[in-house]
Specification:
The protein contains four helices and six strands; from the N terminus they run βαβαβαβββα. By secondary structure, the protein is of the alpha/beta class. Strands 2-1-3-4-5-6 form a six-stranded mixed beta sheet, with helices on both faces. Helix 1 packs across helix 4. The two termini are about 25 Å apart.
């Protein structure tokens, strides 16, 4: 049987930023079922490396213990020029979505595991070279 090359889309990449161990334990398994996931603390060297090398399609930032008015501009600046969707969430259950591909932003009324999985699934598959 001859070898046939296929261009199968890669799984979407999700970067989890600053999630507490409890939040990570709840969110990561569900996202791993639908995407490639990496988790890093913020700020830190791991975050800097992930920005440069992981190329996420979706970035989920937990601002529960961070000042969102400081962190949001920093994160948006670091991912400017990418097509990433960035979700800022907190333990209050609400969040904010910034779509860098379309340069649009909107509030998210409720941010739960299902919402995050739906956001990851909503994007088109990415073909990586």
């Amino acid at each position: 049987m001859p070898f046939t090359a296929t261009t199968e889309p890669s799984r979407r990449r999700v970067l989890l930023v600053g999630l507490s161990p409890l939040a990570l334990a709840a969110v990561e398994p569900a996202l791993c079922a639908v995407s490639e996931v990496s988790s890093v603390s913020f700020p830190g060297d791991d975050f800097d490396v992930a920005v440069e090398s992981f190329c996420p399609d979706v970035v989920i930032v937990d601002v529960t213990y961070l000042a969102v008015n400081v962190v949001r501009p920093l994160i948006l600046t670091r991912f400017s020029g990418s097509d990433a969707s960035i979700v800022f969430m907190s333990d209050a259950g609400t969040g904010w979505l910034d779509e860098l591909r379309t340069l649009t932003s909107r509030p998210l009324g409720a941010v739960g595991i299902g919402t995050l999985v739906d956001l990851v699934r909503a994007g088109q598959p990415v073909v990586r070279s």
